[in-house]
## 1
Amino acid sequence: MITIGVLAAIASAAGYFGLKSMIPVNGSSPAFGFPANTYIKATHERSGYEYVSQSSGSVKGMRTSGGGSLVNPTYTFSSGELESIHFINEDYDTHSQHNFNIDEFKVHTRDLKYFESQTITFVADTPGTYQYYCTIHPEMKGNIVIE
C-alpha cells in the first residue's frame, strides 16, 4: 500500500511539473504544439558586444551576402505562433555576462555566464514591432516583428 502511494505521488508530481513546463512565459495555460526555434548567441567582436543569429544558412534573411551571420538582426514571427528563443552566451573574448529580454512578451533570461544557455518559449500573440535587448550591455539590441 505504501509503494502504491509513493508511486502515485511521483506520477502526480511528474504530471504537474510536466504540464507546468508547457506554459509559455506570457501565457496562463499549456500550449500543445511545436514551437518555431530561433537560435541567438551573445558575443564580443571588434565592434563591441552584439547578438548574432545562429540560424542555419537555409533560413531566409539570417545570413549576410558573404555568408556570415547578421549582427543584432530583426526577427519576423507570425502572429499567434509559439516561439522558442534558444539563447547562449559565447562571449569568449571578455567572458562577460549577458541576458536577453523582450518586455512585451515577458521574455527575460537570467544573466548567463560564458557558455551558459537558456531557452524561453512564448506566444507571439500581438502584432507589432518590439525591441529585444540586454540589460547589461545597452548596445545589444534589435527588433522583433510580429505579423
## 2
Amino acid sequence: MSRHPELAERDKRILGVLVHAYIDQGEPVSSLWLANRGFGVSSATLRNIMARLEEQGYVRQPHTSAGRVPTDLGYRLYVDQLLSERKSAKPTAQIEARLRRAGTVEDLLTHVSQEVSRASHQVGFAIAPDMTTFERLDFVPLAGGKLLVVMVAAGGHVTHKVIETTEEYEAGELQQAANYLNQEFRGKSLVEVRQAVIERLREERTLYDELMARALRLASTTFEGMDPAPTVFIQGTSLLLDDVGNEDPELTLTTLRTLLRMIEEKARLVQLLDDYLGTTGLTVVIGTEHHDADLQCFSLVASTYSDGHGTGAVGVIGPTRMRYSRAINAVDTLSKAISRMVSGTDM
C-alpha cells in the first residue's frame, strides 16, 4: 500500500498530528503548536523536522512565516496509516433497517447515496451494476449500404442504431445473422456480448464458417460504443456550498464549478471514475493521484459491491481536506450493507 519514502516513526507521528489538525482546523500548523502536543522535543527540533518533511514533499508552506499544510503525499501517508490500523466496518442495525425500507433497487441506491453523504458530510454517490441484458436484435436494410439495427434488452428497452457496412447482405442473410446472434448471446450483458464477439472473431474456426464470420462482423459494428447510460444516484452537493461558505482554503468556486459540472454529466463522472472502480474493495484516490486533471483538486473514497451478476460502487468525493476516517468508515459500511442486500433475497 505504501507509495511514499519510509519515515522515522517519530516523523510519522508528527506528520499524522499535523494532517489531522489541518483537516480539523483548516489553518497551517506551526512548530510551536506541535511543541505543545507531547512529542517531548523542542520547538527548534520540530522546525527542523518540519523542514525535512517539506524537503521530502509531505508538507508545504503556503507563505513565508506561516506554518505547514499537508501535500497530497502527506495525505497519502496519513490515509495509508488509517487503512492499516482500522478494523473492518460492520453495518449497524439502524442503517440496515433504514435501507430495508426501500421497495426497489433504485430506491435502495437512492437511500445509500443519502446515507453515505450524511455520514461523511461529502458528496455521496451510488452506481448501479450494469443490468442491461441483451435479448434480441433485427437488421433492417436501408439505402446506401446502411443497416438499421433494432436491439431489444431485458424489460423491453429498445435501442436503434444505423450502421454502415462494406459488404452487401441479402434479406435472408441478415435474418440468418440475427438468428445466430440471438441464439448465441441472449441473456448476456452488453459488456459480455461485446467481449465474446471479439474473442470469437479471433478464433480459427471463424475462418471456415462464412455465415458466422459475417454475423460476428455485423455484431462487432453494432455493439461498438453501445454502452448503456450509467445509473448513478448522487446526494449532498449542497454540502460543497457549505464548505465554500466556511472558507475552506482547498475549495474555491472554480473547483466547485468543475465538480458540479461533472456531477451534472453523470456519464462523464462514471467514465472518469472507471479506472478506480474496477478494483475490488476499498479505494482511496487523493488529489494529483487522479489521471484526469479535472479531478486533481478532489479526493475519492469508493468501494465496489456485487449483486451476484455485476459490480456497482458506493463512494464519496470531495476536497482533499476531507475527514478521511469518517469517509472511509461510511463507504466501507454502506458498500457491505448493499452488497449483502442486493446479492441475497433481501430485495
## 3
Amino acid sequence: MLLALPIFDLTSCATISRHQFAEPSAAWEIRTGQLLYRTAKTTLIGDVFVRFSKNGDFELTFSKGPGVTLLSLRQDANFAEVQGGLARRGWSGPIDRAPPQLRGWLCLRDKIIAGRDQHLVRHVAGAETFLLRF
C-alpha cells in the first residue's frame, strides 16, 4: 500500500492540469442560445452558454436540459480544457496538441468572438458542422 501511493501521485500528475484560466468577471460578455452539432452519424441540438473576455478568455457549455452537460470548454489563446460526454475522457493541454476530434470545438472560440454581433454563427470543420443561434 505504501508503494502504491507514490506511484499514484506520480501518474496522477500527468492527468491534472496546472494551467490557470482567468476567472470570469462582470466585464465578460455572455451569450446564450441553441447549438446544432452535426456529424455524419450524429445530430444534437441543445442549449449553449458562452462567455468571453476582451482578452480572449473563453468558456462554452453545451447541454441538453438541466443537469446534462454534453461538453464544457475553457480556453485562452494557447491552452484549453474540455470535459463532458462528447469529449469522451476529457482533455487539457496546448491547443496546437489537441486531439483531432476536439479541434472543431476549439475553433469555435475565434468564430464566436469574431461574430459577437451576429445572431447566427456557423462553423464547418471536416465532417462536423456547428450552428449557433443567439
## 4
Amino acid sequence: MDATSQRRGNLPESVPEQVAPTLNRRAFVRTASLAWASVPSFRLLHAQSTTQPAADYTLEIADIEWDIGARRKIHTTAYNGQIPGPLLRLTEGKPVTIDIVNKLDHPEIVHWHGQSIPSEVDGAMEEGSPMIPPGGHMRIQFTPRPFGLHWYHTHAPANRDLRRGLYSGQFGVLLVEPGENPGRYDQQQFLVLHEWEPYFAASDDGSQEIGYSSGSINGRMLGHGDPIQVRQGQRVLFHVLNASATQVRLLSLPGHQFQVLALDGRPVPTQAKVETLRLGPAERISATVTMDHPGVWILGEINQQLRSSGTGIVIEYAGQSGKPLSADPISLAWDYRSFGELAPPNQKPDITIPLVFTSKFQGHGAMDRWRINGKSYPDTDPVLLKQGLRHRLIFDNRSQDDHPVHLHRHAFELVSINGAPTSGVFKDVVIIKAGTKVEADLVADNPGPTLFHCHQQDHMDMGFMTLFRYG
C-alpha cells in the first residue's frame, strides 16, 4: 500500500502482505500449544517452505506505530501494518486459504466472527483452536458462510494489559458476498469504529471500568481522514462495524435516514428507516442512505464529547464546502423488533435454557467478577445442546451493566424482548440491557464446542464465558 492510501480515511480494499496481535489465557496457551500438529483443519507452516501453493490471503500480526491524527501516534498491534486490517472479500461457499504469520514474542489467535465453521478453525482456544506460537506461521482453510458483513479479530485475553486483546488494533472487516446476485449501489462504504488510549477509571460503586482518550473511524480521528464524497441522489450502502473493546456507539448523519438492510450480516425481514444506529461491541449494521440533503456533514457519535474525541467521519456532497456540521437526531429510538416480522409466528422450543447474568463486587479499585448461572469461567457448567433441536435461550440480565452477548459459530433468532414478541431477526450478538430479559431461539446445527461470552473485553476476561457442547 502506498503512502497516499495509508493516509486515507476510507477503509482500503487492497490486501497488503502483513498484520498484528496480542494474548494470554495462561492455562489454555500451555495446553493449546501442544495441539497444533494434531488439528486437521490447520497446517503449521515453516518459513522456508516453498512447496505449498500460495494462500488466498496472508495476515501478519506485528507491532506498529499508527498516526490517528491530531499529532497523536499510538503504539499498538495490528494486521498487515494497517488499521483496520485489510478488507477480506470472500464468496459464500467458495473455500479460502489464509496464512497467518505471528511476528510477536507471545502466542496469538485470530477469530472469524460470524462464520459457521468448525471449532478447530473458529479461532477460540476455549473451543480447541490452536494458538499461533511466537514467530510462527499457520495456514487455515474454511468455507465461508453465511454471506454478509462479518469480521476477524484477536480472541486473546487482555486481563489487565490495556495494550492487548481488543484494546489493540487487531481487527478487520470480513465481507462474505453471496454466490449469486450481489446487491448493487452507487457506493459501498465501510466504517469501522474503535477507541484508543484506554485507561482504568472508577465506576460509581468504586470498582474499575475502562475509559478512553480518543476514538476513530477507519483508524483516523474525525477531521484527519479523507471525507466520503457523494453526489445528490446517490444511494450509498454503509457497512458499519463496532470494533470497540467495550463501548456501545450511537451514530447519526444529520438530515438523513438509514434504511437498515441487515444486522450482523443477516438480512432483516423489515427494512425499517431510522435516524440513529446503535451498535454494541462486535455488532454490525448494513444500511443504505439516500443522499438527498446537500452539505458537508459529520456522520458520527451523537454524543458531542465522544464525537469531539474522534468518533466521526465527514460526508461531503459534490460542489459543497465549509465546516462540517453536526446536529442532534430527532429520534434516538432503537429496537431490534423494528426490523422483525410484523406478525411473529408462535414457534415452541424443544428445550429451554436459562442464562442468568450477575456480577460480584471484588472491592474498590478492582474489576467486578462476572457470572453465568452463578459461576465464572472456567468453572462454569457447560450448556448442553441436542443436534437439530430448537433451544430457547433466556438471557436474564440481573446486573447493572448492559451486555453484548455473542455466540460463536451460530446465529440465534430473537423471539422476545422484555416480554414483547418478535421473530425473523437473526444475530450473533445482542445487547441485553441492565435488568432486562431477552429470549432467542437457537437451532443446533453446527456440532462442536461453541463459546458463549459477553463481547466486552473486560467482562470476558473476568469470567463472563461458558461453553456450549453438543450431547
